């Protein structure tokens, strides 16, 4: 008697084989995706932790630096979002780059994206440890080691990524409202009381903007937007992705650019144009806490300490979710381990990719601890910096890819969107990348040798990716040819 397969038995009984679970489609709206993106940028942490250095080194014209960075990325978003209406692949950056510049460059970009996003997330566990230490010491006089905090954070973030994407969106929405709310409270207090020495618009005067320190401000400002482009990673889980993804991208860029500039300006007003640069240079870590204590109250400073910790957690969760979806997409491409493509039956999350990412994070964090490294100066800055440069290079490659892509297809998009804006973005992003790399010592505080190594990581990873592409072309030509191919239209709407 012949033995029948399960598939044959299902056909004989009229039942279809059980389908593998997939990501939950049609779940995320524009605001949900925007929450993920803005949370990744960690506005409160960027403002309280980084903006004082921008003021100290760039002067009172610092708010304009954030506006210029936002404008540059808005120009980039024009071509990027136009292409998003045509490219339905799940791989975000690498899919766009592949369609414009070919599979070899796309595979190099895919490896760069994985390393870049992991660098942006894993380094922040050092910040979580130090921020929690400082908060507990400031509020309760308690001193704790940083490693248990960072490891606990790894578990919390793993759980947040393990749960459904709508759970993550709701959680990030609450955390983001809290961290932006405390900054709005600070701004309101400063404006209502007329600032420390009256309100002034001198920050926007050309004489205060076009100064040597502006290059430094721009370097800090571009770094403050890192991760905004991750909107397209959630395409498969978005409602009406052709509209939702572009809207979320523009909202994220506009919000961050305007919000950063406004908050930095209000803090300048809190101390006065003549005094703020000295205050920021003397004690940058206390600039925002001092301002909110003076104009709102000590209780608000205590709350800000707590919300910096939740801001860091929100950023970690946002990057973790993005990394998991990159891992899932690469598993589907046949480049990453097949297990990374498994989706949880109940939560519809890429849980194996999440476990792998958490394991990598745990190894890096404990490795830095075992080496006696400083969690902020080394774990955060030395791991974060190559990740930031990697994501900036990805933005640059994506901008270059746009006009090449539209030359290859028949379309009805205008020249402004497909040629002019992408070329302008390429020039502007090239300048931004050079600014960041030439002022890298301001980010790391490290020696010249260390800085050279940190800058070299991203291009080295990209070259390794090109080597992987060459190997795949020889050993797995079918995987190479199908890389970042368009999904079936029917599959996307399931």
From TrEMBL:
InterPro entries according to UniProt: AA-permease/SLC12A_dom, APC_superfamily
Chief location: membrane
Polar residues bias locations: 1-14
Annotated Pfam families: AA_permease (PF00324)
Domain Amino acid permease/ SLC12A: 37-478
Gene3D superfamilies on file: Amino acid/polyamine transporter I
GO biological process: transmembrane transport
GO cellular component labels: membrane
Keyword field: Membrane, Transmembrane, Transmembrane helix
Membrane topology designation: Multi-pass membrane protein
Region (Disordered): 1-22
Compartment(s): Membrane
Transmembrane segments: 33-57, 63-81, 93-117, 137-159, 171-192, 204-228, 248-268, 288-319, 351-371, 383-406, 418-443, 449-470
Protein name: APC family permease
Native organism: Streptomyces antnestii
Lineage: Bacteria, Bacillati, Actinomycetota, Actinomycetes, Kitasatosporales
